[in-house]
Amino acid sequence: MSYELxxxxxxxxxxxxxDASVDAVSAAIIxxxxxTICFExxxxxxxxxxxxxxxxxxxxxxxxxxxxxxxxxGSIGTPHLTFVSQLTVRYGLEHFEDYDWGPxxxxxxxxxxxxxxxxxxxxxxxxxxDDNGELVMIQALQAHQGDTGGKxxxxxxxxxxxxxxxxxAIPCVKLVHRGEPRRDIIRxxxxxxxxxxxxxxxxxxxxxxxxxxxxxxxxxxKWGSDTVKAAIxxxxxxxxxxxxxEIAGWPDGSYAATVYIDHDTQGTKDVKVQVxxxxxxxxxxxxLSGTDDRPNLVGVWNTxxxxxxxxxxxxxxxxxxxxxxxxxxxxxxxxIVPEGCIAQPxxxxxxxxxxxxxxxxxxxxVAVALSKVVPGRCQPQVYKIGxxxxxxxxxxxxxxxxxxxxxxxxxxxxxxxxxxWGSCPASLxxxxxxEAEDAECRFPVLNINREMTTDACGAGxxxxxxxxxxxxxxxxxxxxxxxxxxxxxxxxxxCGGDSGSPYVNHFELGSDNERKIELIAxxxxxxxxxxxxxxxxxxxxxxxxxxxxxxxKEDVLDEYVSLAAARDKYGVVLTGTLExxxxxxxxxxxxxxxxxxTAARNSQAA
Length: 606
Description:
Elements: H1 3-10, H2 24-48, H3 52-55, E1 60-66, E2 71-74, H4 79-82, H5 85-94, E3 106-109, E4 121-129, E5 135-144, H6 163-166, E6 173-177, E7 180-181, H7 183-191, H8 198-223, H9 225-248, E8 253-263, E9 269-280, E10 283-287, H10 304-318, H11 327-331, E11 333-336, H12 359-370, E12 390-395, E13 398-402, H13 436-442, E14 445-449, E15 469-474, E16 478-483, E17 504-507, E18 515-516, E19 520-525, E20 530-534, H14 549-557, H15 563-568, E21 574-575, E22 584-585, H16 587-605
Helix pairs in contact: 2-8, 2-9, 8-9, 10-12
């Protein structure tokens, strides 16, 4: 639990020792086999788990870490889980002798101060040995669990000032020893979780890595451990070369961005994330110096492992998507995170909410900074939601919790040449939003509205996707929790595009007790209370006055953009009416209005 441990866990690792050489084709075949095994592990977990956050929303991912702790391979899954998993495994590897690693073992870690993300992200991993007893790799499965055994259900305590408030922190514990479950440990961990479904989730994670170990052992027998190690070395080195080749094509210079969180959970305003990306030859340095380090902040502490991961999520989106995602990406980038700031907090700091903010602002800052370098790939890979409306109640089966991970549209920004589309930002990757009907079957809630909202998107030459208004009624007395941000600082537009629309949240809509949530809420709601959560829209790309007027007309017809916004935001004059579906662009009036608006803006800028 120290900054020194963070430095040690993040340090560059040497290649695996091997006398074998491998050609590019064989290395790719072995990599493909490892990726397939990871995909099967993640799919196994998604199908076998009990909780909807895993078996419906699919918030999980599988990776393979080599014997030196390097990220060797991963599946298509939630990106930030891909890039954080190896640090937890590295901590376990540091204690190889202490924990008596051997064939058939399975371990668990989730501690933010020992390489983890935040407490809900459980990392279950198992070593893979060859027939000579040499450790070659580790299969890991990471998934978000619905509870952590802390003060509040779900692990999100809005006023937490230390990690112990949030739940059970596990640096490393052995769940299975030489193939035999350690039932005392498993039951202890199950006891520190409010959900009966957790035991099924944990069993699914354990069986997922055990199944993958058998497949990896078979692969090692087929190719030989030396050849497999040579392939891992080759693939990691090749990724580093490819990333450096991309960076070498960028103009040298330092590119800075400042992004703000509206406030922490106690109302301290304008929490700052400062990002400076420096390109020098084939070297990229991402420096978070200047990021907020006020010790009185609450709820906005992101773990060091998460910070590295969220930086890499954005960088991976800024380079050729064909580049394989592995440790080579980290080897090609220097990451500087000041000790004590909100991106690398002091030991024992609470971390649950940090995976929302400042994690998202860190990624957003990288995108804004590098938009000056690679504008064609600078969509922020983030979700600016403060936290979903968590709705909690009790019935004959115990506690239930609707975590608000069902269908919505939010934060989908435009990129050069493409309007924002889809329901979620790309950072969520393989994270599915579960069906509203499924939530209604599981919980006493009724989903009333999931429609996108007109004008809830950032204007631009290419516009963001509108956010949706999510309205639900709770059918039983419940507790609802929320932390509201991204009202004053919504997701950033890029390269002259407007920022996305703000988030807005109301509890007990339509009643005498209707109220807007400005900061945080932990409220008891009566039966039939209605919650209305307006999710923010995506940011635009490029100046709105450069948008094709015909595209603006189509947006008005699709009810993405209002007639008023078409004129006021885009300078487009339309004739006809929506009712008659006979809208047409007045070309001359549009040209005149845009010339007038451009002159006014230039005058203001001067």
